[in-house]
Design a protein that fits this description.
339 residues, alpha/beta, QueA-like, Thrombin, subunit H, 2 domains, 9-stranded mixed beta sheet, globular
Length: 339
């Protein structure tokens, strides 16, 4: 499978730079696989395509304000993007600045310092801080917006879902950004069920596949978890014949990883693990019946995942329709419901 079949042309002005207010007023493209029809709507009216008993699965991860800024001893500015906590004082991080080699120290405000102790390749480094960095990060850190967003974010909470609880992500599960508390309450009153899972999103989610052949790409791993409560809700929905609807590709990846942890009766069980699941066309979905997602970057593993669900030609047709109809793309863009 050649990677270039997942290319498409997108005018720059289709890349959303700011979020819609209110959240649930984003546009919604609906693709029905059975009828092969495309429809349009507004996200707040998503109930029109749902049924009582449907189970929406939300990713409750919370984005860390993980971009922090400091200076080298020589005065040069340094940007540090914290990626993964190794221990109390040590983090994997991406660093921006010149000559940031092993042994170099970075000075931050409030007496915090960091020392580069290992070069992990490219701009990634292992940084040991003088004391735990979490408080400094929450007080001084900025949201790590994707590289294609160039407009400063006025409200940092707009890059969090309203149901975010578990800190650990370097990027938001963006399909969840369309939900408001009011919309969730309305859907519950209509008879929609909700379950919460966790997958901490890594920055590699934005990286395009650079290999010529898809099969040569090594997928990034992300930490995920389904607890007993969520597993029970998923099993009950399946038993009743109700749809399990993943909110976002992160929920998709977690739910499909869950099928590795079935018990002898075939029921999903609670689990915690890093997942390396790479979903491409030809994959057979085991748990997910429908999904809500945003519009994804060319050559991305996320575009491959949705193409595996609805078929590459169908996704290409939906994306052409969305471009022609003026839909907004990527993290702050509009939504797509695939039935």
């Amino acid at each position: 499978m050649k990677t270039d079949i997942f290319d498409y042309d997108l005018p720059q002005d289709r890349i959303a730079q700011t979020p819609i207010e209110p959240r649930h007023d984003s546009r919604l493209l609906v693709y029905d696989r059975e009828s092969d029809q495309i429809q349009e709507g507004i996200f707040r009216d998503i109930q029109s395509w749902l049924k009582p008993g449907d189970l929406l699965v939300l990713n409750k991860t919370k984005v860390l304000p993980a971009r922090i800024f400091g200076n080298k001893k020589t005065g040069g500015k340094v940007e540090v993007l914290l990626l993964k906590k190794i221990d109390v004082h040590t983090w994997e991080a991406m660093v921006g600045g010149k000559n940031l080699t092993i042994g170099k120290e970075i000075n931050f405000d409030d007496g915090l310092t960091g020392k580069i102790i290992e070069d992990l390749g490219r701009s990634e480094r292992l940084v040991r801080f003088s004391h735990p960095v979490e408080r400094f990060m929450r007080e001084r850190g900025k949201m790590p917006l994707p590289p294609y967003i160039h407009t400063p974010l006025q409200d940092q909470n707009r890059y969090q879902t309203v149901f975010a609880k578990e800190e650990g992500s370097a990027a938001a599960p963006t399909a969840g950004l369309h939900f408001t508390h009011m919309l969730i309450d309305q859907l519950k009153q209509f008879g929609i069920e909700f379950a919460e899972i966790t997958l901490h999103v890594g920055l590699d989610t934005f990286a395009p596949v650079t290999e010529k052949d898809v099969e040569e790409h090594i997928i990034h791993t992300e930490w995920c978890q389904i607890d007993e409560c969520a597993a029970d809700k998923i099993n009950r929905a399946k038993k009743k014949g109700n749809r399990v609807i993943a909110v976002g590709t992160t929920s998709v990846r977690t739910l499909e990883t869950a099928q590795r942890f079935r018990d002898v009766q075939g029921q999903l069980t609670a689990f915690t693990c890093p997942t390396d699941l790479f979903i491409t066309p030809g994959y057979r979905y085991q748990v997910v019946d429908s999904m809500i997602t945003n519009f994804h970057l060319p050559r991305s593993t996320l575009l491959m995942l949705v193409s595996a669900f609805s078929g590459l030609e169908n996704i290409q047709r939906c994306y052409r329709y969305a471009v022609d109809a003026g839909f907004r793309f990527y993290s702050f863009g509009d939504a797509m419901l695939m039935l």
